[in-house]
Amino acid sequence: MNFVIQKFFIFINIQYKFRAVLLVLCFIFSINTFAFTPTDSPVKPMSPRQYEDLEKASAKLHAEAQKLFESQNYWESARNLIILLDFNNNYSRIDEVLFTLGDCLYEIGLYEGSKKIFKYLVKKFISSDQLPRALLGLQRIEYDSENLIKCIDFYKVITRGSPSQEILDCSRYYAGLSFYKLNDYNNAIDILSQISKSNSYYAFGQYTCGLSYLRLKKVRKAVDTLNGILRIAIVNDEIRSIVDETHLTLGYIYYELGYYEHSWHQFSAVSSKHTNYRDALLSAGWAATKLQDYERAIKPLTQLVSFQQEDEKTQEGFFLLGQCYLKLGLYDDALKIYEFLVNILPNRELVPVIIQQVGSSIAQEEKKIEKIKMDLLVLETKLLNLIQLSPDMDTPLYLQQEKEGITLTRNNLLTQIQTERKSFEQFSMQIKDMKEKIQIKKERQDWRAFAEYGKSRAMFLKRTESQN
User: Fold this and answer.
1) Residue 47, Ramachandran bin (φ over 0: left; ψ between -120 and 50: alpha; else beta)
2) Exposure of 85 in the CB half-sphere (CA atoms within 13 A)
3) For residue 102, which of 7, 27, 73, 141 sits 20 to 30 Å off, Cα-Cα?
4) What pLDDT does 31 receive?
5) C-alpha closest to that of 256 among 229, 209, 225, 217
6) How far apart are CA 24 and CA 305, in angstroms?
7) In terms of Cα–Cα distance, which of 297, 294, 267 is closest to 280?
């Protein structure tokens, strides 16, 4: 086996030893970097046997990367693909390698790196059968980046070609969502309604169609469309999730229309694994209360407050549970509920102070996020010329010997990026949480007073009952 192939396998072994660092080795790519060659003179052409050996080794690594991608091990898949790019840029299926690598970056959430790869693929492999998939990848990135007009433009480009039905349906989905966000509900319905029933996006497209009909005040059409989703067979967690969300949405619609029994059944149908299951429990409690069926309301409300999360949903659940106990004459139980609320809710005069403190914390966290954004920008810029996409067989030896140093620098930068990215996500979540809490505290400044009133009323009714 020739020197290039030997170095190929040696490099793979080294990469596995540094697995933890290389999990993030797929952020931004550049077409101008150093290629590794064993001499400072032009490389001699490989013999057919040598080329065949290198092709087989590349195919094996490619297959392993694809398997990792399909099992959702995106970091490891990207690592193998980058190794392949570093050592055999003339691999016969290099367009597939580039597409899968771009897809890995997209799934990880590194949209700029993914966008760069897809653009390179579209530009350099104009005749590749991966071209429609790369265009779809670019369309998805524009949608996720809120560039909705560009997302729709990519849809138009894709439809002018000869894409497969699957790609066309996926493109319709993102275009339809874009029209929906642009408040163009008729176009959203028109495009989303064309998605094939066999496509995995069909249920999601129908859900957005239902919301579009609601926006157009076509309630009957909206209800019919959403009910159609409930007839879809639940074959995976994604379908289960959209069916649960449909139950929840239908529950809200029926509730607003005054059909509380229908509303109750929809809220009760939401599975316990759904992200908004606690919303469904609270809403079921409200629907039963509207029906004056307080015994029925107690079950979902008790389940809600048993989650041991002292947040706004729990507080509202306790309030409603206390009201149900009062209506049922269970004054001791109602008294315990209201005493608990009095203990956890702040006095009205303290709420402005709390709001001010939270507002100050939000300002500090936003400054940290801005700094992290700048740090990430600097790190990304440093990475632009550290990973190759295009082969350069005439690189002098003294530059080839810098390969190890470049790799080490790249790994260090990517480790920093991973750390900064985690900090960015953490601070972003904290800010979102604090903003939601500050808004709710503004809206619920008098809740302690309501709890005290509920406590007094429970004590009065209990006293009256005992006297009788």
Assistant:
1) beta
2) 28
3) 7
4) 37
5) 217
6) 41
7) 267
- Alpha-carbon distance 100 to 63, whole Å? 11
User: What is the pLDDT, as a whole number, of residue 367?
Assistant: 58
Identify the pLDDT of residue 194. Answer: 97
Within 8 A by CB and 6+ apart from 320, the residues are: 282, 285, 286, 289, 297, 301
Instruction: Tell me how far apart the alpha carbons of residues 121 and 126 are, in angstroms, rounded to a whole number.
Output: 8
Residue 462: name the closest of 362, 259, 351, 326 by CA: 326
Element (H, E) at 110: none
Helix (H) or strand (E) segment spanning residue 161: none
- For residue 170, give both structure tokens: 């996926």
Give ∠ CA 185-186-191 in degrees, rounded to 5.
100
Calculate the alpha carbon distances from 189 to 147, 154, 158, 165 in Å: 20, 18, 19, 19
H or E stretch at 395: none
CA distance 462 to 468: 10
For residue 30, what is the DSSP state?
B
Contacts (Cβ under 8 Å, ≥6 apart) of 446: 348
Exposed / middle / buried, residue 308 (Cβ in 10 Å: 0-12, 13-18, 19+): exposed
Q: Exposed (0-12), middle (13-18) or buried (19+): which is 13, by Cβ within 10 Å?
A: exposed
Look up residue 100 and give its amino acid: T
Q: Are 255 and 275 in contact (CB under 8 A)?
A: no
Q: What is the average pLDDT across 150-174?
A: 95
Q: Supply 349's token pair.
A: 């005069």
Q: Contact, 252 vs 262, CB < 8 A?
A: no
Paired tokens of 318: 């306790």
Q: Quick check: 2 pLDDT over 50?
A: no
Structure tokens at 22: 């290389």
DSSP 388: B
* Cα 263–chain centre separation: 29
